[in-house]
Amino acid sequence: MRRSTRLAAFLAVLGPGVLAGLSDDDPGGITTYSILGAEHGYALLWVLVVATGMLILFHAIGVRLGAVTGQGLAGLVRERYGVRAAALCLSALVLANLGTTCAEFAGVAAALGLAGVPTVVSVPLAAALIVVLVVGGSFHRVERILLALSATLGLYIAAGLLAGPDWGATVHGALVPSRITTSEQLLAVTATVGTTIAPWGLAFIQSYAVDKRLRPADLRLERVDVVVGAVLTGVIGLFVVVACAATIHAQGGSIETAGDAAAALEPLAGAWSARLFGAGLLGAALLAAAILPLSTAYSVAETFGAESRIDDRPREAPLFYGTYLAITVAAAAFVLIPGLPLVPVLFLTQVLNAVLLVPLLVFALRLAGDRELMGAYASTRLVTALGWLTVAAVGACVAALLVSFL
Amino acid sequence: MPPGPIEELSLADLLGAAVADADGRRIGRLRDLAVRLTTTAWPVVALRVGGLGTSFDLPWSAVMAVGQDQVTVDDAARGDQAGGTWLAGGIVDHQLIDLDGRRVVRVADVVLERADDTLAACGIEVGAAGVLRRLGLRAISRRLERELLPVTAVTVPHGAHDPLTLQTTRARLGALEEHELAGLLDGLPHPAAGQVLAALEPAHANRTARHLARRHAVRRARRRHRRFHAA
Q1: Quick one: pLDDT band at residue A56, thresholds 50, 70, 90?
Q2: Three-state SS across chain A?
């Protein structure tokens, strides 16, 4: 096949992997990575590398499930394990997604707050724009706009370069695991895993692959999309960590939010670093604020047997669009509550993601390995083994964290 | 079984009922019912009983009495094969293609009709009300409209692992022009589209498949054209 034809074929399937991957670099993720770098320097970079590998594994599983079965994760769980299992899956997703969507709007407020825009203006405006985009747009238009928004995440790479990191320490921290000895380190590790392999991302990539009408024949190129998306996520996360490690950590400072990180960068790395960080935060927040409610809407519709697509009109898919609107409005309203402590919302929702991730990983792994369901596309022994290793690692993090709180 | 008035039952409400032998000794719980698929109602032909670590089937002829909370059976018929399609394992929670509305829905429950000594599936329930009822949220479920379809409008694929159910008859599908049917199938998940094609007369299926392939090719070419020129 000619190179131009191969490229065109790849661009035709591009979407699920890149969007699901890059949406992981949302304000909650950026905050988590910022704290990882600001408080622990380069020492825990290896956790991000390992989490990225896990992300590739499970996003590939998700897109394969969607392309082969034509069903989303929640719908498949209902069909194979019953309505109670689907309700458990959905409850975990809705709880995690609502918290994370609040974090996205908190990120919009933080990013535009750096430019002096008050929260009461920025959050409702962002919510309205997002609802109009998804409810009023076709699948292709929505996808194009979301992919364009995801390009703003590249600004973090520029911000990281401007911060002048120690590249030797970066490589060492990324490749050499360090011991986890304190509860603060354990919390940071768990939050990093939870924000990188987010529960909503697992469900979203599968539902989106179905909505995009991917087929088994598309899987070869789609794997490239998944790897590109996950690697970009990891690279952007790495630059956020090193930007904060090289500046805030080196000065012995601390931060509480991604907005704090953007502000703190200015005296240490110049105004442009801070502006790029803030602009990247806004792009990340808008992208994730559009995708999180979409993931929730897909899952709710699938669980109740009303599978829907973005191309459906609102009156054809009332449950789908009603859920989208409800999650968006609820999250935006929550963030507007005066005096609300946004730090727990931004950081601790990522810990909650890790806790709720375990049952979803188990469902996805079992379904992907089911030969009756997947036929020739069932997971290989290697993928299954790596998957169970991931489940064990995430479970161990969560268990250790719970024990440390006792 | 003693004769009685015609009574409507829900599969979800029946499942889990205690199963007792003629002496009243509990032998398990009702796990599933098998039906014979016909062009009218689907008569129940077997039941599956499960206990702690055990499971066995009984033909419907072994049933002596059916109540909301208990089914009494002649346990001596254990092991007799009756065949049929299992409702809980093969119909409930599976996708149903609503070709009239061009939507994919899921079976939430099955409505059964009991008359004298027969029990038959007469309706399929889709929609959120059935799901909420099965989750124990009856108060919310009662506020929603119950969406019921007659089993006569449903065709179940013959393959053991084919999960999809068509909400129309072959005659109605066959009456559509190939280009109309291709347009309809284009909006469905691809495994569902394959099931619809498999239900058609071969010549009709081939012509429809060619229309569908042409639509897919045009869509792929448009995507490549857009991406190629954008790049």
Answers
A1: very high
A2: CCHHHHHHHHHHHCCHHHHHHHCCCCHHHHHHHHHHHHHHCCCCHHHHHHHHHHHHHHHHHHHHHHHHHCCCHHHHHHHHHCHHHHHHHHHHHHHHHHHHHHHHHHHHHHHHHCCCCCHHHHHHHHHHHHHHHHHHCCHHHHHHHHHHHHHHHHHHHHHHHHCCCCHHHHHHHHHCCCCCCCHHHHHHHHHHHHHHCCHHHHHHHHHHHHHCCCCHHHHHHHHHHHHHHHHHHHHHHHHHHHHHHHHHHCCCCCCCCHHHHHHHHHHHHCHHHHHHHHHHHHHHHHHHHHHHHHHHHHHHHHHCCECCCCCCCCCCCHHHHHHHHHHHHHHHHHHCCCCCCHHHHHHHHHHHHHHHHHHHHHHHHHHHCCHHHHHHHCCCHHHHHHHHHHHHHHHHHHHHHHHHHC
